[in-house]
UniProtKB/TrEMBL annotation:
Protein's UniProt keywords contain Glycosyltransferase: yes
Boundaries of every Quinolinate phosphoribosyl transferase C-terminal domain copy: 130-294
EC class name: transferase
Reaction equation(s) it catalyzes: nicotinate beta-D-ribonucleotide + CO2 + diphosphate = quinolinate + 5-phospho-alpha-D-ribose 1-diphosphate + 2 H(+)
Record pathway: Cofactor biosynthesis; NAD(+) biosynthesis; nicotinate D-ribonucleotide from quinolinate: step 1/1
Cellular component GO terms, alphabetical: cytoplasm
Function of the protein: Involved in the catabolism of quinolinic acid (QA).
Any GO BP: quinolinate catabolic process
GO MF: nicotinate-nucleotide diphosphorylase (carboxylating) activity
Protein family: Belongs to the NadC/ModD family.
Gene responsible for this protein: nadC
Protein name: Nicotinate-nucleotide pyrophosphorylase [carboxylating]
Amino acid sequence: MSAARFDKSGLDERLIACGLDPEDVYVDIQDYLDEDLSHARRDLTSESIFDPNHSSIVAVTARSDGLLAGLPVAHAVFHAMPGPTEFTYLAKEGARIRAGQVLARVSGRTRDLLAAERTALNLLCRMCGVATHTRRFADVLADWPTTVLDTRKTTPGMRALEKYAVRTGGGGNKRMGLYDVAMIKDNHKEAAGSITEAFRAVRSAEPEIDIQVEVETLDEAVEAVAVGATFLLCDNMSPKELGEVVDAVGDRAELEATGRITLDTAVEYAASGVDFISVGALTHSSPILDIGLDFEE
């Protein structure tokens, strides 16, 4: 089914407000639906039970406490169905939600609602889970001038959605991919011979792009700043070692700490004076938030 089916009647604006490209979302949703229904869009069970014109109203309901992220994406899934659906928002994007709370109601042909159910819930549960996990880090860091960042450790095909969920939870996005920011890491340093040589090679090839440098020691941090780096990723350093880097670098570079940082240790790392901590687990290990769909009378 072509993405051109969407007129969107307010849906575009909701997705744009989330920082998402509507057309990208619509195209991705076609792929997600094909995965569950095949290109033929068949739900063998529902087609056997319900007449094509049978209609229903369903409630999208939180079954756990958490943070809401992705309701417009769920809306887009229902809107992708061949028959008309009406999606009523009953909760605000980014709000804290409670178990038992009805987040939305959807009406339409029963076959369409059940065909869209699993894809819509998979996306919504995943995005709410990422946002909820991120919010826990943001809350822990609330008294510190330190922001939690995500990484590129995202689910293939869901990077934009997961990174939106991180933003909704109060975190920041490190970079979208390999194309928008240069990041000199250990393999680059080894291949080029040093941080200095790697930095100069990237700067020569890309005079205007932001360059970040991964460092593992105080000496590497000093070398990176000396060659012109203004953002350092401090990998697997202890809070004490990070404090030494902060003292040596001062305000000449923004500093990010990474490497097995948890909710229990986040404040200890923030207290070292770094500007950011990055947590790959925000996107690769966040548990979903349990959300269900039930028929209403």
